[in-house]
Design a protein that fits this description.
single chain, alpha+beta, 8-stranded antiparallel sheet, 4 helices, globular
């Protein structure tokens, strides 16, 4: 069906009517007070050392929380293969059977992550690193930090083993005493393989430590270089230094 075109006279009357409406609106708008701005929601929580948190910030958060670089542990010079660097939270957090460590929930107010690459003390700079430790920091509202540890314990108990790259990885956990308000140490064990992917007959291990400092939780994930074992002694030192660093930041 074809569309008819209004007669020229009708179009002229419509144009005049439109101009009159515009003029009247402009005259009225100059005499009215400007509208009051609607209340704005608080600015999103930022973390200076990280990508956005894995969970949205809590809607009940009353203050902004910023996690500075100084809240993260730094290795002593003799163990430091390269300076700490910012890492996306979703890449820094370990995964076992599922996303056990990303379950901060709506009580998370901020999150950030950094990675340090370490070496054995006294090794020449030409040697490859021994491993990397990813550190993630979460801050929580109210009792969110304790609830995070409770959920994590339950999730770890439900995941005694899992498959990774064709290898069976077993998981054990225990309390880590003397670290923060509460802490958990997980050990992953799997068949050791050579650089060619062939099994050597031995086993490899790496550890994950999780500690709570008041309303803050920090996760340390030790990864040996190219799938080799991590270094438990270095991780233990990093965890204890890291908890002291967070405690100093919170004061």
């Amino acid at each position: 069906m074809s569309r008819s075109t209004p007669p020229p006279a009708a179009r002229t009357r419509r144009a005049l009517a439109l101009l009159g409406t515009i003029a009247l609106t402009a005259a009225c708008s100059t005499t009215e007070d400007p509208p009051v701005s609607a209340p704005t929601t608080p600015a999103p929580t930022t973390a200076s050392a990280s990508a956005p948190p894995t969970d949205p910030p809590s809607p009940s958060a009353s203050t902004r929380v910023t996690i500075p670089t100084s809240a993260f542990v730094e290795l002593p010079a003799e163990l430091r293969k390269s300076p700490r660097r910012t890492t996306p939270v979703e890449e820094a957090l370990p995964k076992l059977c599922a996303n056990e460590f990303g379950t901060g929930g709506r009580q998370v107010t901020a999150s950030a992550a950094m990675t340090v690459t370490y070496q054995k003390a006294g090794e020449p700079s030409s040697n490859v690193p021994q491993g990397m430790i990813h550190q993630t920091i979460f801050t929580f509202d109210s009792a969110g930090a304790s609830a995070y540890l409770d959920r994590l314990r339950a999730a770890v108990q439900a995941c005694p083993s899992y498959d990774q790259s064709g290898n069976r990885v077993t998981v054990t956990s225990k309390v880590l005493p003397g670290v923060g308000n509460e802490a958990l140490l997980l050990t992953r064990t799997w068949p050791e393989t050579s650089l060619n992917g062939e099994r050597t007959g031995g086993t490899a291990t790496s550890q994950i430590a999780v500690a709570r400092v008041d309303s803050t939780v920090t996760v340390f994930d030790d990864e040996g270089w190219e799938g080799t074992s991590g270094n438990p002694a270095i991780l233990d030192r990093v965890v204890r230094d890291g908890v002291r660093t967070i405690d100093a930041w919170q004061r």
